[in-house]
Amino acid sequence: MQTAPFHSTPVSDPAARKRLYDSRAFERRYHCDSPLGAQWSPCSTRFALWAPTAQAVRLALYPDGNSAPAVRTLELARAGHGVWQCELPGNWDGCFYDFTVTDSDGAARRTADPWAVACGRDGARSMVIDLRRTDPPGWSRDRAPARSPEDIIYETHVKDFSWDPASGVPAEYRGRYKAFTLNGTTLNGDGLHPTCLDYLKTLGVTHVQLMPVFDFGSVPEGSDLYNWGYDPVNYNVPEGLYATDPDDGAVRIRELKEAVQSLHRNGFRVIMDVVYNHTYHLDSWLWRTEPWYFYRQNPDGTPGDGSACGNDLATERSMCARYIRESVLYWAREYHMDGFRFDLMGLLDTGLMQSIRAALDEAYGAGEKLVFGEPWAARHSPMRPGSRPAGKRALPRLDPNIGAFCDATRDLVKGHILHAERPGFVNGGSARLQDLAHAVTGWAGVQGGRFAVQAASQTISYLSCHDDWTLWDKLVITMDPGQKFDAPTPAVLRANRLAAAFCFGCQGRWFLLSGEEFGRTKQGLRDSFNAPAALNRLDWARAWTAPWRDLADYYRGLMALRPLLPALTDKSADAPARLREVWRPGRKGAGFRLDNAGPGSRWPELVLLYNADSRPHTAVLPAGRWQVLADGEDSRLWQTEEPVSAGGQAVLPAGSALVLGRADPIA
């Protein structure tokens, strides 16, 4: 059944557009569930574009993705629910295309296809693709490795991972997807010190989180420029900057699949960092196909800006929600992604997040795909009345398998994220014992306060990510007035180990920035989103140079120990009840006794002791025999053949941690 557009609502009146799109009549008339984009088959391709208020839509076909003139143009026919479509006989695999949309005011706008799954250089033209020819050998048999007892997430940027010439990666693969397919890389090719993928295999992380790998607009493809990539252009297409050939739309798809396949083969699950809260510019393919529909507006019609990037997607509108939900499912299905980290999740509405979680659970099993995000926005966003943002206040009511970054623990441990010189617990500041206890239980069940979730399954415990200062830089700024980021002092090293030990001892999932384990520095730069790759790179020589090499080994020991401790890996709503006792072993200390019972547990109870003071303290231990599992210098004491027993008390050196497991049964 054909329906006519709302010709009476001009694009030049954005306030009227807002009223139109928020009306129930528009939703009933134009919500569409049929396939959109270019649906390829060997015999024909169906092109479908959702543009309900357009007067006309014209399709143009091209031999390349750059500047070649069109080889054919034709008008699309109006179909039901705002869809324009046509079907072309023949095999159009590899053909590029775009649309010209004539709006209700008679103005014509060229646009690529927002529903496209392939494109050419810089995403200017969309591409028809037979996706099966992009599958690497064995792709149909690719499976994620089995879930480990604990999820330890390692965030990295494709370019950061292998850009360093010392990585041992061939020059043509540095900073590209292909680097993730290589085994056997070593520091400067010395054959002794593993880098990149083989280094990760020595570390103990279970998930690799890739910063944005969808097509973004801030850096020209084929250039040597750098950007984090939080600037979406084509949501369902891999970024060509990391491909060996950005012109052939199939190459970027195949090479990202190869990277995921290799990570799976080497024992890692893969998380995709997704940015569904805004587009690079308001003048996007979404806007050009249906002006204003996909964007939130203030009452006067101007664009919302809760992202601080100039626009916010209107996720509460049904076709925008469909677009995002289908995009997530597409990446999970086509690229075998194992989880999704949502940038500024507080700008998305709870209805959308719940539906994404439900759809992933239905397709892959409850909780099989990780879903978490930043439970905040940069600014207020004019969300439609009746919708709720998926921010901090919503966490206790969201599905317990929708997680969030715990900024409360982050700031408690190392100091406020917005104030460089404000310290936290480990670097000279103070912390309430109650808050430290809340951090240990992942802030689950907390009433009010700085952070609150239903269960530890929602908590992402972390100390640093790509945003803001690295953990090392924050510690240096607060503890070393000279700010010598490459000349570590013993005090800063102790504080880093203490911070790592505290985060290790928190319920929830453990997340860290790549290189955090070897004191990654950006020389004090707070946000390096467009700084040179030379500053952002993982410094592989640093990873194997004392004392940072020893710091990395301290992290390794903690990562190997954590899966053995049910007290910390329990994600159930009952996990907070494992915390049995809390006390102060000194002025700037904290002690915690936890129930560590569980299948295969070697220690029925666990004691965590932290001393952030500049002088040592003595801690009285609970009754029983206690084995030292880790201290402030060595995180592998639990691997010794003979248990090292502590008596009724333990000495806590300055700026150190002590992890103990009960070595005798509980009476």
Account of the 3D structure:
- By secondary structure, the protein is an alpha/beta fold.
- It folds into 3 domains: 14-129, Sandwich (Immunoglobulin-like); 152-280 and 317-566, Glycosidases (TIM Barrel, Alpha-Beta Barrel); 580-662, Sandwich (Immunoglobulin-like), CATH 2.60.40.1180.
- 22% of the residues lie in helices and 20% in strands.
- The strands form 6 sheets. An 8-stranded parallel barrel has the order 10-11-14-15-16-17-18-19. Strands 20-21-22-27-24-25 form a 6-stranded antiparallel beta sheet, with helices on one face. Strands 3, 4, 7, 8 and 9 form a 5-stranded antiparallel beta sheet that branches.
Short structural description:
The chain is an alpha/beta fold.
List the helices and strands and how they pair.
Layout: H1 14-21, H2 24-30, E1 37-40, E2 44-50, E3 56-62, E4 72-75, E5 77-78, E6 83-89, E7 96-102, E8 108-111, E9 126-127, E10 152-156, H3 158-162, H4 196-203, E11 207-210, E12 214-216, E13 232-238, H5 249-265, E14 269-274, H6 285-289, H7 318-334, E15 339-342, H8 350-364, E16 370-373, E17 402-405, H9 407-414, H10 433-440, E18 459-462, H11 471-479, H12 490-504, E19 509-513, H13 533-536, H14 540-543, H15 548-561, H16 566-569, E20 579-583, E21 589-595, E22 605-611, E23 617-620, E24 626-630, E25 645-646, E26 649-652, E27 656-662
Parallel strand pairs: 10-11, 10-19, 11-14, 14-15, 15-16, 16-17, 17-18, 18-19
Antiparallel strand pairs: 1-2, 2-6, 3-4, 3-7, 5-6, 7-8, 7-9, 12-13, 20-21, 21-22, 22-27, 23-26, 24-25, 24-27
Helix pairs in contact: 7-8, 11-12, 12-15
GO molecular function: pullulanase activity
InterPro entries: GH, GH13_cat_dom, Glyco_hydro_13_N, Glyco_hydro_b, Ig-like_fold, Ig_E-set, pulA_all-beta, PulA_typeI
Domain Glycosyl hydrolase family 13 catalytic: 155-542
